[in-house]
Design a protein that fits this description.
By secondary structure, the protein is mainly alpha-helical. The chain has a domain at 27-78. Helices cover 49% and strands 0% of the residues. The protein is built from 3 helices and no strands. Helix 2 (33-46) runs parallel beside helix 3. It is globular and about 30 Å long.
């Protein structure tokens, strides 16, 4: 049990360490349904067009960009 506690606190500063989208093995696949849906919402809020042909990795980067622009998701990154 102590070992699990040690592992969880080792990641505490980052909470959810993530791979860079360019390093994803499935990054070239088409974006997922949830990505498309969230991007649609973010694009509407930002007044931008949704590119329906993004890959998973491209969609992830676009989500991050639009979150910064709209202020969404910033509370989770602190």
């Amino acid at each position: 049990m102590a070992r699990q506690d040690t592992q969880s606190t080792a990641h505490a500063p980052h909470e959810n360490p993530e791979k860079d989208p360019k390093d994803w093995t499935t990054g070239d696949e088409p974006m997922t349904g949830p990505q498309r849906s969230y991007l649609h919402t973010l694009c509407q809020e930002a007044g931008e067009e949704l590119d329906e042909n993004l890959s998973k990795a491209e969609a992830s980067r676009r989500i991050e960009e639009l979150q910064r622009k709209t202020g969404r998701g910033t509370a989770h990154k602190q």
